[in-house]
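Re-run with default settings, no changes from the original entry. Doing this only to confirm the output is reproducible before filing.
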Amino acid sequence: MGSYKYVHANEIALYKNDERKKEILQEVRNQPIIQRIERPTKIAKAKTVGYKAKQGYIVVRARVSKGDFRRPRPNHARRPSKSGLYYKLDISKEEIARNRALKVYKNMQVIGSYFLIEDGKNKWFEVVMADKNII
């Protein structure tokens, strides 16, 4: 293998530590929904997705709220029996994070993304993007 095998094993050990998770959550909760970061938090995961540490590649952290897509039930007059309180979305939370990152960085192309961390309300993903002219 290579050295990233050992880096990945080290990251797994770090993320099993609750103190490290708390540090990451404190840092991430205060940031906006879409935040460009200097370097990936999980370097081994980013490398497997396609990240390269060179000009034209960026990493964006995106926040997505947890839970189903809920629509309010009508509360006046006659109610349809199939009013549909909850709907299943056709795309995953990770795909939603990718789309949000693409809306902000329109000149970039998504290479890949991976799960970072979650709490009771939100999930955070890191999206690896590259300039369209480079690819």
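The first strand starts at residue 34 and ends at 37. DSSP finds four helices and six strands in the chain.
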